[in-house]
Specification:
It is built from 12 helices and 15 strands. It is α/β, with parallel strands linked by helices. Strands 1, 2, 3, 4, 11, 12, 13, 14 and 15 form a 9-stranded mixed sheet that branches. Strands 5-6-7-8-10-9 form a 6-stranded mixed sheet, with helices on one face.
Amino acid sequence: MAPMGELARMVPKIHRGRGATAFAAAVLLFSLTSCGVIAEQGTGQRPAGAARTTTAVAPPSLTVPEVPAPSAEPTPEPTPGKGPACAAVRCTSVLVTGDMLVHAQLWDQARADAAALGKPGLDFSPLLEGQRAYIGESDLAICHQETPVADPDGPFSAYPSFNVPPQIAAAAKDVGYEACTTASNHTIDQGTGGLVRTLDALDAAGLKHTGSYRTEAESQGILLLQTEAANIAVIEATYGLNGQYPEYAWQVDMLDVGDMVAKAKKARALGADIVLGAMHAGDEYAGVPNAQQQDTAHALVDSGEFSMIYGHHTHSVLPVENYKGTWIVYGLGNGVTELSPWYQVNNEGLLVRAQFSQDPAGKWSASDLAWVPSVIVRDPYRWCSVAADAPQGPCAGAEADAATRLRTRTVVESMGAAAAGARELILSNKP
């Protein structure tokens, strides 16, 4: 006869089965009890002089079905994302663009575009419309709001102390952006009032943001964005504030490796799968990154906490580097801007889409990096792709577009990007 303890151990094991198995086990247990196999219960004590009543009955053979142990990790649900074909089970893509630098000519254009559409006020969506097709082939798009914004009716001002129409935020949301970074050398052009107005305008448009903050508590937070496959953190900082000082030091994130790494670790602890580091730094109109950009970017990669580094501020396209297996996009040029008669590079930009994939061990890394050369044209002012398969046709003319594309490619690939796998982005679904 099986000892009491042994049979007691069998019961929960049996009940882990399903349906008929659990029922049959219960019936068997009841039968054993009725036949006297389990006859003594409680303390096991009996009155003095009483005879032991246990009947020696040989128990039938008892076979307990084995239940397979659950696997340590569930099989991940296939999530290919909106980027290129993905060899891994789970992939996601992130698109980033350069400075949204709004000058008077652009808000005049926005007013004309609104009037043409029968709308009051200003509408910047036509200016940004060309980006929509590329944003549509990414899982997440992030812009950079370079300047503070004014009230909807102004007054507006441009360089050197910007105070631009807040309608630019609504247009960014309209074409597909989900978040914007906000730390730049112009962040406090209009003091705390301008900083707060900018964040309020982004909130009103439905755009998340990081880099500048209304409260000290906000400054301690981490921008976490979700795609279907991954949690993505964005950490951004600026090299300076044009010699100005914020009312409180915590209002704007300044470029500091230690601070950025600390935020990245916090992001990982909060569940970030992918951490993007954004730097607002460099020499204006340059064609190469300066020492601060390279040293900072390399240090961030060396920390092991960042999945990709990218930058803006120079108003020119800068090289792309693959450093120790991590992409660094040193400068995205301008997302939107007025045309400069002196610096052709000011009129050009770079849109970059990075695809990240998850390996069997659960680690995320960039598996594809693609870029789009762009230019701003006028009459009317528009962002315009000069990629090989540009969907809208010529921008500034076939010859000028070819020159912009060649100049951009030459700079982008000057630090070995092509050999490392970076490529020009080809749209799979043209509008």
